[in-house]
Write the structure tokens for this entry.
Amino acid sequence: MAAMTTVPSYAPSIWVRMCHALPRLDLTMQMRDNIFVPDSWEYQQTLLVLSSLSAIALLISLLVVLSFLIHYCCCNRGDRGEGSEEEEEDEDGSTGHGYSGKKGRGICCVTWVAVASVTLCCVAIGIGFYGNSEANDGMYQLTSSLLTANYTLASIDLLISDTINGLQLSISGPLTSMEEMFTGSKPFLVSTRNCRRLSENVINLLSSISLARSSVGTAVGNDSAVSGASIIPLTPAPPSVAPTLVPNSNLIPSPFSPGWAANTLMVNEDYRWLSYVLLLLLDLIVCLFILLGLAKQARWLLILMTVLAWMALFLSWGSLGLETATVVALSDFCSDPNAYFLNSTQFGSGTSSDVLDYYLTCSRRMNSPFQQLLTQSQRALSNIHTHLSSLDRNSLTQFPKAEKSLREVQQILNSTEGNFHQLVALLNCRGLNKDYIDSLKGLCYDGMEGLLYLSLYSFLSALAFTAILCSLPGAWRSFPSDSEDYEDSDSESEDPFTSHQDSKRFLQWQPWL
């Protein structure tokens, strides 16, 4: 029982605190605050400055690759002049048509650099797959918590609508009939009118309760009013099938709807997850085919993979810039999420700050802002029940025709009291606060960790593709051209000594000749 009475807490992780402590500069290179205000142009400038760091890194990568290309192009002519002298010196010491000496060691070094770069890229791809999975898990927990909160809010709305419609039905139907029957008896007429007055009072009190009222509960309430006579206790649908508001546009609805947010996040998360999977598969295909091209010494394959490596390099640095801005913005939000929700007009419209603070903090020292309304409604329902019991004991002997109307009012009152008890339980802060804490943990723990891993993947893959683009031109030089292969094969076939030695070895190898 003690574990159930505790309220779960949230504390920013060490990664959130580290990223939140990063200095912020705007486009004029002036220091700015790190308060999460996404609508502010000054805050957006700080994110743009952080994202531009990846653009600077991309420029440095391009300069490094360009310098290596110039080095290979300029040194190629010198290597051709020195190659003839080295071939004469190394002709007696080398076997076959491979490379040896200084040139061979350089080619071997360049090839191993390319292989090491591809290996680093594969490690980065593994980190990227893990980070993408972590981010997806965090977003799934966030959307699941939002759907559960939307289910609770929809249940509150449906309970309020069901209670109001039931009381309105009792006023317009059986209570009106009882007033007509008790016209000649003043005590019974006064009790009946008191029931009407108290029912109207409960309707006014419940109508003042507002928690992001949606159109779903109103529609259901109207249906129950039309369907007629009896009001049954409400059993709302589970979160997976609970009705949610589907937005007609990309604008945030007012008041804010968790169902709308969950639907929007699920769609965007699907696109984000698929985009990263395609990017990771592209990097993996490029790395594997580069290894295949180096093993098979296929120049056309390496040329094609070089083009894809250029595209992957730009995508890696671009994704790193986007991830950097997202990580920093998310750390600013996760450092103090309550302050953002309390100060934001999008979440405060239609809901008082006291109500938001009650559900966001859920402190035992805070009283429910609906406590007075619920207490007055409970007293009014108890008084209605007292009046109906008095009429049941005293009036039926004199007015037996009023029994049917009295039983209908009692049935509606019993259903109303059952719905009212459910409403009191749902209006308690613990349920919605738990959903709020779970959504923060999914976004600020798993989501933040996944984005950091994706940032590490983008950085390592960018470095790997930079090294690959620098080493591939040198690896091409180690591949023999088609003309060299043809000349080597012709020289070996025209050499009478080589042919004689090969035939002699073949005869000696055959034991039956």
User: Anything to note?
Assistant: The radius of gyration is 38 Å. The longest helix spans residues 101-181.
